Amino acid sequence: MLPPLKNGEVLRGRYKIRERIGQGGMGSIYLADDTRLKGRECALKEIEYDRALPDNIRDEAREQFLNEATVLARLDHPNLPKVSDIFSNGPRDYLVMDYVPGSDLRAMMLEARRAKKFLPEKEVLAWGDQIANALNFLHSQAPPIVHRDIKPSNLKLMPHGLIKLVDFGLVKILAPDEVTITIIQGQGTALYTPLEQYGGSDAHTDIRSDIYAFGATLYHLLTNEPPADARSRFLNPENLIPLRQINPAVSPRAERAVLWAMSLHPDERPQSIADFRQALLGHHEPPTHPLTARRIQPQSVWDYLSNPTETTLAWSAAGLLLLSLLATLAR
Q1: Do residues 49 and 127 both lie within one domain?
Q2: Which residue, 328, 26, 314, 13, is CA-closest to 186?
Q3: N or C: which end of the chain has fewer CB within 10 A?
């Protein structure tokens, strides 16, 4: 990794770095002043590629990023930060986005937890309605765009009450021929990541992966407790505690909708953001119980593994179990 940018450093003759405000596996996020448009603050998301990769692979990754990031620059929605520029600086690439002031929802949830209170359901669901607007917009693009890292810390509440879904770090675009294109490789955050997103392959992640993460995010906000991750739930479905056992003030409708969204198998979740929103806020009744396993049993193991989605889930779970056994033996 190269050293971080210095405060006061100017990139592209325009963006003056004020401070580093975030750091991830692919690089840092900086708050910068736009010297061309006086008074405008922006966020620079830095992408640094693995220098151990062969030159041709790294060049292909950079070209893919720069080409596909232009898709993000065309997006215009009130609940998404506007991408205004894309450029390279030496071995690093940058996305320039609107800087979003305000507190993220994780900080607000932790503050409520310290005060031994819960965030009001009415308020959380109002935020959820805005998040659904943003996701419906992304998923409605041609081809659809999947965020892949929805979590409370990526949701910021602006001073006037608008929610912004930030950090396009793991965004992927679903090509029409079903070949997935990941702008920046990553696995998301374990607490909010569905089982099909584990294992390094995103061949079977789609808009329903965002629905799982959205449901897991609402679970955390309504209970002050992180949900059991998909890996532990695969091994023991009872690890996911129903919301009302933690916060009895949560309505039965909200509990059922959230647990429906967090079904382990994609086919058993809401199939669109519109379906989930209707279950959460409208008149459609979600399933009474969370669906934790496929009810239709295949005739043989070969029948089961002949389904690509089932294969992904099975191999992901097997790999995770093997890693757990190896870690136990190593101790």
Answers
A1: no
A2: 26
A3: C
Kindly state the tokens that stand for 85.
Answer: 């520029």
Q: Active site includes 149?
A: yes
Instruction: State whether 227 and 256 are in the same domain.
Output: yes
**Span 79-137, pLDDT tens digits:** 999 999 999 888 889 999 999 988 999 999 999 999 999 999 999 999 999 999 999 99
Same domain, 84 and 116: no
| Residue that has been written with the tokens 């049993």 in this structure | 297
CATH classification at residue 48: 3.30.200.20
Instruction: Give me the catalytic one of 149, 206, 210, 275.
Output: 149
CA atoms within 13 A on the CB side of 270: 27
Tokens found for residue 154: 């990526």
Question: Are 85 and 205 contained in the same domain?
Answer: no
Residue 19 inside a domain? The answer is: yes
Residue 321 CB coordination number (10 Å): 13
